[in-house]
Batch of 2 targets.
Target 1
Amino acid sequence: MTLDAATPTLPRTGTVRLAAESVSLAYDDRVVVRDLDLQLTDGSFTAIVGPNGCGKSTLLRALGRLLRPVSGQVLLDGRAIARTPTREVARVLGLLPQTPVAPEGLTVGDLVARGRHPHQSWLRQWSRDDEAAVAEALTWTDMADLANRPVDELSGGQRQRAWISMALAQGTDLLLLDEPTTYLDLSHQIDVLELVARLHAERGRTVVVVLHDLNLAARYAQRLVAMDDGALVTSGTPEEVLTERLLADVFDLEARIVPDPVTGTPMVVPVRRLR
Amino acid sequence: MTATAERVRQPGETVVRIGPVSGRVRWRQVAVPLGAAVAVVLLSAVSLGRGDYPIGLADVLRSLVGLGEETQEFIVLGLRAPRIAVGALVGVALGVAGALFQTFARNPLASPDVLGITQGASAGAVAAIVLGGTASGLGVPLAALLGALVTGLLLLLLAWRAGIDGYRLVLVGIALWAVAAALVDWLLTRAEIHDAASAYVWITGSLNARSWREAVPLLVALAVLLPVALACSRVLGVVQFGDDTARGLGVRLVSTQALVVLVAVGLTAAAVAAAGPIAYVALVVPQVAVRLTGGPRPPLLASGLLGAVLVVGADLLTRTVLPQALPVGVLTAAVGAPYLLWLLVRGRRRSTL
């Protein structure tokens, strides 16, 4: 089995893969997200945007079953994710936390190999499938030459590529990424998002990404989900979502929206902060 | 594809595939435990013949198979063999317990010495010695076992908040250590001078006068807990990535954490009950093992066997080279700590795991 076999080649558009049903999320007693509904269809590329503290990362954690809702539920392929064995979930849904930490001394090759964990058992620790998947993930993300280098010696951009490579080796249809461009300079932000976009376009991955940069979100995602204060404000194509009105309401920002001279997607030109 | 598959192989790695079984074998991770196992056997062999009453190798072998002279057989089989066995088993238990704690908490400070578990055992043992009035007998090991288990369970309960955070574990452990240390000090100040002296020997960790009575329960504990620890090994490699990544990769985090802590506490308690809190073995040995094998975390088997090397070797030195028969715990601390310092100064690695 190669990665291709595990990857849906034809996106069955319209099928809901992951859904939040009136989900409320809280840390201890502090409610962060209230009664939120969201559906993510197969083969889609969605970016969740919103101001700091609006609950977008919290929502992503719940979608990836890292946080159990206080009410409502998350459905993966129509099944309650909380009642699905975590190993089964890990074969369908991969996630990359914000600024993940690799143990010191771990090589890139070993990091990517860990992505095979949900496919392995105590006896079957390194099958041909595992080896092939890891080799292909390394090649595909252009990390093969760095396979024997410790992760902690890599630059920020290379490190993020290594983690994405691990998520690729995991071979899941769905991929959730929490601010994968944090701490990266602009060219590496582009590099990482290009890689994610290729995962979506060439590998048919269903991608959900939390992003801060609205212009990059509009450029790479097909669908934007705007959140404010723990609620979903609006969702749709970047053109539908990124309006001057929304920027004022959600981000307290006076801004002009102009077409991106390169891609034609909406581009935010800030004027000043409101209030 | 084959060309790229070759590139995945790390240097010094062999891939093993027999039917449904597959795995990666790296020579350093095989060579280090093998070398340590050979060293334990050699040190034990030397140790059997050395002491206040030296016995030649031929006589040692004769005694081992029951053909020796009566006195020699008593010394070899009745005195030295159980002592060495207890030393080796204690080393294995402490080495593995330290490796489990350090990997799990992602913190090289997390060892049963620092987390208060051995101190809890000391409190139990000293209480039995001072309050019970008797310095020997089954009472002290049992009290030590109880002290370690109670401290370990307290650690698990107090550090638990929908799972265990490594930092929280270390902080709670240090607090428990302080409480247990205060308890020991208080008991010692109240103790009769004779009791205080024997309590002091106990809390340094010693193999003096250890018999099969200590070795057998320890062997049973290891036979149960060691396979569980080794079975956790694969999952631990993923747990080390942090909670979110581990759960993303399909690890049942809460049950894994609870299991690992319980196994590590059990191993520590069994070791401490047999020989007292032999210092720094659990702290230092896993760090030595990870530097010898390479790789991102302390290997369990190598840590255990190197622990045995350290304890058996230290015991041999205290009985032969040093002028006065010191408790073995003094030497493990005196040898182990500077060796770790040397590794830290020499290596490029930071102190973190």
Target 2
Amino acid sequence: MHMVEFKDVYFEYGTHAAGQPSTPAVNGITESIREGEFVVVLGRNGSGKSTMARLMNALLLPTGGTVWVDGMNTAEGDKIWEIRRTLGMVFQNPDNQLVATTVEEDLAFGPENLGLDPSEIRRRIDAAARYVGMEEHMKHSPHMLSGGQKQRVAIAGILAMEPKCIVLDESTSMLDPRGRKEVIDLIRTLNREKGITIILITHHMEEAVHADRVLVMDRGRIAMQGTPREIFSRVDELKKLGLSVPQVTQLMHELKAKGLVQAGTALTLEEAEESLKAVLKKSGFHHPALQEPAVAKEPAEVIVSIRDLSHTYMPGTTFERKALQEVSLDIMKGEILGIIGHTGSGKSTLVQHLNGLLKPTSGSVTVDGLECGGKSLKELRQKVGLIFQYPEHQLFEETVYKDIIFGLSRLGLPQDEIERRVKCVLDIIGLSEELLWKSPFELSGGQKRRVAIAGVLVMEPEILVLDEPTAGLDPRGSEEVFAILTELNRTQGTTILIISHSMEQIAAYCDRIAVLNRGRLEMLDTPRKVFSQEDRLRSLGLDIPEITRLFRNLHRAGYPVNGHVLTISEAVRSISETMLAKETHKGGNNA
Amino acid sequence: MIGNITLGQYIPGESVLHRLDPRSKIIWTALLMVAVFIINTWQEYVMMGAFVAILLVISGIPIKQSLKGIKPLMLILAITAILNIFFVQGTPLVKIGPVVISYEGLLSAIMLFFRLVMLVIVASLMTLTTTPMAMTDGIERMMKPLERVGVPAHEIAMMMSIALRFIPTLMEETGRIMKAQASRGADFDTGNILKRIKSFIPVLVPLFVSAFKRADELAEAMEARCYCGSKGRTRLKQIRFTRLDLVASLAGILFLLILFGTRFLMISH
């Protein structure tokens, strides 16, 4: 029995989306999803994934072909409510799908719409809340919950309608790693225990590993489909579609390409570990650790000096919260500093002091000789460019050009200087000049993000601070943003601070890492040293890059590999050196 | 920044007031507020004050919480009280230069002060003991008869409860956008009024864009959860006029009779 069936389905949005290319959003899909299946849908932003999801529960009706849900045609108007109770949907933004002012009443919303008896509603919402572990929060207001909790409430709200299938449209993309894990664990249990069909749309490749089947979408079509193993073995095709694969999969793929291993595709750390162990001969020989370059960059000069910084929100009220406590930290000119720590650890509070948005409760922050919180606010904000999460939400002008020069036009610069800077920034962010005269609201998500970043870059800040710069972007979009940042750092010597939840990104791009926990600075060191303390990080609720963990495990088990690799290229180098050393029966030559 | 609006924040509890039908609470709040405006002798003030105090105790809400609603009104209270002190004519009490403080002025200032305090407490007693959902439910049910003359009672109630749900979210968002625009060089604090109003455009446009986006997404989410208006819809919490409501209403009527009954007695004397 098929849960969802697409028969030659097309869907075209109305003419209002002028900026979009005229190809249909869904362009001829024929596909069936079995009852009880766990399917993950991958694809770039704008590949038609969300449209496909909306076609499944009749929020959209196909302009060509038919969609069947549990034997019902979505185009038949009288089946619409039956379809929606059978196939529930969880959306991307946790805030915009909770209707009521308490968790309990939100859970009841669906069953109420079904016209169920109050006692039956009660039974169902209690069961659903217990199932997702939110029974303690029944009387709470949704806005007091964390992102992961909100999504669990949204899922429970669907569960209370007792659906056979749940579609999650990028429901993990706005969550932190902890929230994401909560949601993924929950839907896997739902699939396993209750046999609910799960269709998960996501950008996070690791989430696809556990699926029964993966569909890859590209320009409104299904470009690839198969088991995770089949899909992730086609690394080059995925790359071409702007997607990526989990780190360990990428590693094994590269080793295979070099002829170093013969094993099949590895999806998980355990699999990669097994096949690497089989290749590397166990020996007492220990590969010397990769040495840090003796001098990372030129003799460092302190550009930001933070001394005993504390910040308390709403002091003297019942809501008083100590967000930062006695943080002292020097930021060096020209470095890329990563700031990690889980949600609520004080990362955002810390960076908002750098351009005077927040004033220290005690302690001091000095940027290049300027005291933050002093009178030189305007000068300070020119020096320090701060880019918030989802900066594209702040675009507001009629044209991209006006938006980019919003801050710049306040500096009283001559027109030709403004033009020069805009042109220069367009080069850096890789947008063409004709886009300047479009409305920012016509652009794609990735383009909007880059325009928003451009608006800060034209101020030519010496220090650039970014809060989760790649949140919500697909793998290629994320790479593009990081390419811009490293380029800026390299060519203009801009000091860059990045807040991120992605340890892989932090490990690959940062010179140093500051680890925050409950408002205190826990660690401040190079990525290699920070990520060598796995247990300590774990106790702070943080992870280490998958690849680092893999090599640590191998090293600990006595295999002659470097136990401190941070990136895939380092990992490949370590393995090939070890293999080379083995073949020539000589000691390993150091990196 | 704008986070100090406590009037209307529900505090969970199991008291008699919490359990009353929201409709009786709405009606009685209105009646008591009218009563607060009618009272004018000190005896009536004392009785009314005692009654409000009893309600407060019954509600089990900490006095501090219920008085919080007064804080933002403190300035208005102070100004009206002072105006009364100075401008009500009567028997002079104190003379400071040309300013005369009369006995009547002082009395009316004190009375006004207590009148406003009682008003705020009565109003916040309702909002503190009633969930926004129950309140909108109550309003919906009270407006139900008006549906026959074309008043969309259910839709109005739904709009109210969604507004309540999103107020904190949009406030947070406003703060976030202001910070982001300030980081881009926006300046909200200098210049004349016109310039300051204009400086809010970079905040308002993104706020509206996002509010519309939220509205779109919420509508979609509601549809996906089978919402199609009030037809065929049941409620988790049925609101019912129970025996408790009857007892409470009788008690209320008794109080009003005593309160204003004395007035008639005095007249007849």
